[in-house]
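Help: read this over?
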Amino acid sequence: MAKCEICGKGVTFGIRVSHSHRRSNRAWKPNVKRVKAVVNGTPTHINVCTRCLRSGKVERAL
């Protein structure tokens, strides 16, 4: 699974607990998009989470 190249957000693991309290493993996956962004003055493709896109930490290339 991809990881955000700006904030480092990646997959987090935990335990799913049903109503009867049976436990099994699960994973929370971040919403990571591959976007064309300006990095050091040149447009390149990077993996960025939507939180970083929305907050303006990444300048998208046209």
Remarks:
- The first helix runs from residue 50 to 55.
- The CA atoms of residues 16 and 24 lie 5 Å apart.
